[in-house]
Amino acid sequence: MLIRKAQSKDLRAILDIMNEAILNTTSMYAYEVHTEATIRQWLIKKQSDKMPVFVCEMNTNVVAYSSFDTFRTCDAYKFSVENSIYVHKDFQGRGIGTQLLTTLIERAKKDGYHTIIAGIDASNAGSYHFHQQLGFHEVGRIRDVGYKFGKWLELVFMQLMLE
């Protein structure tokens, strides 16, 4: 297992992982899949904003990615980031997410951030417990904030203090 910075050669694998989550889960509150053009712009923006994107490579195949971005755009939030971690469904439960989130936490500390926020769909018990195991605590819920697959979705916010 190799955790490294994402490169343009990884975009197809990231796109496939992202689109699978959009089409089949409530991990992403999106309806429309991304294209190669939109994912390329996503990576360019992340790089220009100095926001990390990491991938996990196994046997030369990218099987997961992670990133963080500003929590909100107003200036007062500049020390808070929100994380994203997506592992290909065939590779979940192997410690990949733990390695990726640990890498994000180390990077956030190095970059001087104060806290990491995770927004998790309430039905995603796996992600909830995963974040809990790495020190995140639930700090709030927003009921009926999203609508997907014919049902209202509840968003749970979890937080890890870095200092």
Automatic annotation (TrEMBL):
Residues 1-163 form the N-acetyltransferase domain. Signal peptide: none annotated. The keyword Transferase applies. InterPro entries: Acyl_CoA_acyltransferase, GNAT_dom. One of its GO terms (molecular function) is acyltransferase activity, transferring groups other than amino-acyl groups. Keywords: Acyltransferase, Transferase. This is GNAT family N-acetyltransferase. The keyword Cell membrane does not apply. Pfam families: Acetyltransf_4.
